[in-house]
Design brief:
Blueprint (H helix, E strand, L loop, with lengths): L7 E6 L5 H8 L18 E5 L2 E5 L9 H8 L4 E7 L6 H12 L11 E6 L9 H7 L2 H5 L4 E5 L8 H10 L3
Parallel strand pairs: 1-3, 1-4, 4-5, 5-6
Antiparallel strand pairs: 2-3
The chain binds guanosine-5'-diphosphate.
Length: 172
Amino acid sequence: GLKQRQAKVICVGLDNSGKSTVINHLKPESTKAHNILPTIGFNVEVFKHESISFTVWDMSGQGRYRNLWEHYYEDIEAVIFVVDSSDKLRMPVAQEELKTLLTHSKIQDRNIPILLLANKMDIRGSLTAIQCSKAMDVDLLAKDRPYHICSTNALTGDGLEEAVQWLSAISL
Ligand code: GDP
């Protein structure tokens, strides 16, 4: 599994879904986050958590940089997709982003595991993990790839440890 070695995992999702908060929670205190290529507005954060190497970037509103991210796609071994489970209005937008990622030529034929975080579960009226996966039709998008969906509260860390355990345990 991923636990045995380092693995490139990207954490993506719309703006405001909670990516930075998730990352901050997983990031060990001692690890200094650093940005790669900050001058062209393409911020990538790299850190290790229990021997998994995370690479993180914000996917939304940055369409013009998409061709730059694509250089990283070949190395990717797992995807963490964060969705704001209280943002029902943008659920279709999140779905479209996930679809764009998973149907990319460098990704579509690979058996990359997908971890979906239904974040902000603490907000009243937010969708459950199951409701999120239905709203985004994750079954259809994931195809035969292994996927797992967890409700999380990135502010408190609730659900995050279980989610990352799934990634650590899955065999590629
Ligand atoms: P990013 O744009 O995806 O990196 O999102 P951020 O991590 O910056 O989070 C956006 C906003 O949502 C911030 O105000 C966070 O404090 C808040 N937030 C993130 N996760 C949660 C959560 O699980 N519950 C609640 N209530 N707020 C959250």
